[in-house]
Amino acid sequence: MKHRNILLALLLLPLTAMATEVKSPNGNIVLNFTVEEGRPTYSLLYKGKEVVRPSHLGLELAKDKHASLGLNERDLMDGFLLDKEETSSFDETWQPVWGETRDIRNHYNEYVATLSQQWQTAPPATDQPGKRLQPRRHRRTILIRFRVYDDGIGFRYEFPQQPDLNYFLIKDERSEFSMAGDHTAWWLPGDYDTQEQETQECKLSEIRGRFREAVNWGNSSVAVFSPTGVQTSLQMKSADGLYINIHEAACTDYATMHLELVDAETKALSTKLEGNSNTYTPNPGPSAYPLPRPFTFVSHLTPDATGLKGAMQTPCETPWRTVMVSDDARDMLSSNLILNLNEPCKIEDTSWIHPTKYCGVWWEMIVGRGSWHYTNDYPSIKLDQIDWSKVKPNGTHKANNENVKRYIDFAAKNGLDQVLVEGWNVGWEDWANMWKRDVFDFQTPYPDFDIKMLNDYAHSKGVKLLMHHETSSSTQNYERHLEKAFQLMNKYGYDAVKTGYVGDIIPRGDHHYSQSMNNHYLYVVKEAAKHHIMVNAHEATRPTGLCRTWPNLVGNESARGTEYEAFGGSRPDHTCILPFTRLQGGPMDYTPGIFVTKLKEWSDNPSWARITIAGSLALYLTMYSPLQMAADLPENYEKFDDAFQFIRDVACDWDESIYLEAEPADYITVARKAKGTNNWFIGGKCDENGHEAVIKLDFLDKGRKYDCTIYADAKDAHYDTNPQAYTITKKVVKAGQTLKLKEAPGGGFAISLKLKD
Amino acid sequence: MKHRNILLALLLLPLTAMATEVKSPNGNIVLNFTVEEGRPTYSLLYKGKEVVRPSHLGLELAKDKHASLGLNERDLMDGFLLDKEETSSFDETWQPVWGETRDIRNHYNEYVATLSQQWQTAPPATDQPGKRLQPRRHRRTILIRFRVYDDGIGFRYEFPQQPDLNYFLIKDERSEFSMAGDHTAWWLPGDYDTQEQETQECKLSEIRGRFREAVNWGNSSVAVFSPTGVQTSLQMKSADGLYINIHEAACTDYATMHLELVDAETKALSTKLEGNSNTYTPNPGPSAYPLPRPFTFVSHLTPDATGLKGAMQTPCETPWRTVMVSDDARDMLSSNLILNLNEPCKIEDTSWIHPTKYCGVWWEMIVGRGSWHYTNDYPSIKLDQIDWSKVKPNGTHKANNENVKRYIDFAAKNGLDQVLVEGWNVGWEDWANMWKRDVFDFQTPYPDFDIKMLNDYAHSKGVKLLMHHETSSSTQNYERHLEKAFQLMNKYGYDAVKTGYVGDIIPRGDHHYSQSMNNHYLYVVKEAAKHHIMVNAHEATRPTGLCRTWPNLVGNESARGTEYEAFGGSRPDHTCILPFTRLQGGPMDYTPGIFVTKLKEWSDNPSWARITIAGSLALYLTMYSPLQMAADLPENYEKFDDAFQFIRDVACDWDESIYLEAEPADYITVARKAKGTNNWFIGGKCDENGHEAVIKLDFLDKGRKYDCTIYADAKDAHYDTNPQAYTITKKVVKAGQTLKLKEAPGGGFAISLKLKD
Questions:
Q1: Per-residue pLDDT tens over the stretch A156-183
Q2: Fewer CB within a 10 Å sphere, N or C end of chain A?
Q3: Rounded distance, CA A516 to CA A304, Å?
Q4: What is the complex's ipTM, to 2 decimals?
């Protein structure tokens, strides 16, 4: 590997020949890098097939009034020379605090290109007439670091500290991902504030035509930016059978990346989406550089209120941009590329971090049979002006002592670790959408929620309460109360908090996925760690593997969760896509386990979950998370107590995970070995077409017998017409046997395998 | 006073006759209020002369996507009916914690107009065909409350809680102040971020032509918005000798008000100022209502990053809008109207709040002979990445143990209470202008500042250190560290902090005078009060009398302070204007006392202060503040120790204050009686033309004798050619005597009068 003379190479060789080539450890993946007419350019092959065609890398910088004071404005786009190339190899196995496997191998070949820009500016003024000074010479260096794995690559920009690159503002990052064909994509509309959309499946060339109908315009915060803008993680499949996924890793103090597709109709990048009045954010303006070829995705960062994408101080780096690729869909699910690209754990004592199964006072309010708020007597609430002891209760408030005790009893009886209680604290009367800053104090319980009594009661039964902090996206208000709110949790024995960011961000104009908000979410996680508190953040940014570094970040939402089953429902294939997309960056608190799917059976809500009971059980395996909720009502579980046995039994931390079958939006089958045991659990989930799973039990200990319980769809089960039809079969199995299981439309199965001693 | 039939009145009577009339207690001021074609309208007379011609009142509301959820959008501009009128009188005398007088009389007649808007919207949908529902009727009520004093009026809008006015966003407040003529105005360019301008003196009709040159474009944060935009407090003088001042009182969780002048060239309100690239803020768009007549000021609030002016939740109210008026300029200075319109003190135990004289490690850095920062070895600093004990010092860092001890010794020797030390904490290497969020932690001292030793040393000598928190306007960073920073202060015995907000606000797009920033400043003051800490906030919002309610807010800058004497200097009349304008809302930490005015005498700085030494002494009286700095270097004071005796002697808290002479931008003479004593101090300050003060000592105790020391300009003193020429005369005086004192150009005098026992 050496630095060739580019000019000569251009004359003598075709483009690919002049580039530096870096192979993955097994050689399946080949990265090519070069500097083409001053622009950093990479491409990617998998087993000789084009994955990423030659694509430019760079950043456009914003102009700013402080330029004269040292804020750099010169773009990091072109005029680069390749100064140095370095390669190295890395192979290490590490153990996550919790996860799908006990050991994770981090094995890659690394390539670092050191690039420089040089230019001159006018000579400094001189007092001496006749004396001529030399022009000032400037030289700026950046690095692009690639890590080439067997299942994909990561690359990032690194900016060393230097006089000509000290501070800069990002107009936008222009990392290109040029696709080799009109792939099928599973995509969400690119949006600065939400991912609570249903995934679209279509060709790249069809995205523009599908865009408007794909947007969930009714969501509490929507800010789409381009008719071909899509979110990551973006899963694709090529006509010749390659599975390609684009995402990012280790996004900390940087804006979340979206992708803007250049298609045949694209005239310029980052043009405003007509008719989108749902964002105040100014248009950052088109790129000043030539448009790449169609089927190229270009990175598009989330702006702040002024339309700028980031404020940077060297030394610093961007998050990793990742491209995962395989000809086997299962590799997309078993990949640890995102986690590997994150920093090792920064929490020294992690003994207080633990996987958790929980139930909660939640679903009945989501469905509409109860309220978070305590009174109906005020058009709006000012926290400091109400004597809650004198307020007239509305009778529908669910976070009351009696109801919470009922859930505690249920948790204790069924071996669940914690009980989430939403609506425990004052302020829910007018909490959302009204640009109200001081919406909650996170400390004052409603009069019917006896925080001391309930925590004592729970603890006496071996159960903990799970704290809830809905912020209404009023982040300044949350930060002002954070320390005291965590102190309260410590005082009463909470060790986990579910946070929420519903609605538009306050301060107004900011977005859920901006640099400042990403900084905020991580600030909360770090502050929580000081108090030994685990965080499960809803409506926050999409995860990028930060849970490796901060394993007290045990969950995120950042997608369309089970709550949407009460808001009209999601398609049956929804949960067969999420593991390929949303879950790449970290676990999702999907809150599975709805047994009574037709909500009108117990409420006035006409919505329904498009899933069978057996399918619901499967989600505890196919949707990996260290945090698993049994989301339905206790009384609904009591009706199907034999099926609920699986939820009682299933683990949520694993020594080993084997994806047995997978196809995006069709089916996923996975076997997992419970942490520290010899017991296995297997789950299979399919789309609306049903699926026949074939499970070879060759991962079991040879020669040993296992008590096997199979929770399967009944023959006539169907997510719509017969969702509660399931069978429970018990038998003894051993390694090498094959199980064939028929999954109903919108169904699935769950299996527990207990080693017979 | 009764509610007349408006329609009838319109037909039968001239406009002024139909209005309700409210007189001030002594009858000199007459307010008229009516609803004219649905718009609230007021006018003001003083001794029969027009002060405010009929002017409309109202607010335009912003359109918002959340309107359908209950965010009200209907303007509060027209369609009003006058439902009810109430009047009352109030007369109370209260005692400020500190101030110009021991007692303050709050005496006014109050008038409250209750106004309603009524409208209909389409009937609700119905399932029953044939059934027709009635249209929905809406009714909305607001109050406008006027308080009519003998020296002016205050009015505000009040918004009761009601279904049709629950939450709203302000596009802009449109309170009009229609002037009766082309008055002379002393004005600053209206700016969302700074008041560090030199005051302009010209006719209203000349403002537009003078605007661009009036802007201090070099300031660290500039955001002007209109070529006729001016700041409050705005002092004017009419051709017939009326002094008129427009300002506001009690601005808490609301944007700071500017005034936009409608002149002959005005085409529309709130049009963008061409060529002002110094703000990212979107243009809020023109008003939808007819333009008022020329010479009308219209309120213009400071926007947030999205261009909106405020988010409101009822019940709530605006700040008071004030119009002070008199035919005697001295009444402008002695008025307590702004304080009276603020809420009484909310701090129960105020024993820890005290007036303070201080010196500090500050002026030598401002002038350029030393640095706040400790090292020159880094292009930029990341606080968590530097081991300060290993950093190479630059040798110019002034907040070092030895230098601080020198100031402590100086303070102890001269009876000064505290020593401000700027540059004590890490982060000054790259603190400003670079959009850096995590710029300071407010807790880590530089290695050469031994915080424990220095505080112990100071306390052993009866002196305290005065804390400094420069925030770089990175407000989120400050709030994150606030509690620990205050704990540090408590630990080491600090009881006062000077805060600073240099540069553009972070989060980017926000402004120093916005609703959210006004909330921030007050948040800091309230948090400080919990820790028994006094606050002196620099570059914060302009004061509106909040120090009555929160007397631990002992000072603000919010104007061009003494520091500008090192940045090119201010005009000699500058300090003869500030008491009429900036000081209306509360004391200014002007940091007076420069004795060596030609800075090149001890530094390389060619700038100089346009003032004589006697003039400098006068400022301790004419620029009222409970916080007074002796800003010059100890060694400079030692050269003029006889003059410095006055600074040692002068009080900074008062039982009585009598303004003896005053004319804006020309001269101010004031006598003050030191709190709890029988001693008086008199100060006179004049502009570049000099002044002969005539002081009748009729306020002294009759028949008693006083030791009188007069610090006066020498005969040939001059702010430029001979600034250090002063005389000190001692004599014995008694009540009834008259002193005539000649003030040099840019000069003044100071007198101490000590009762002979």
A1: 999 999 999 999 999 999 999 999 999 9
A2: C
A3: 8
A4: 0.94
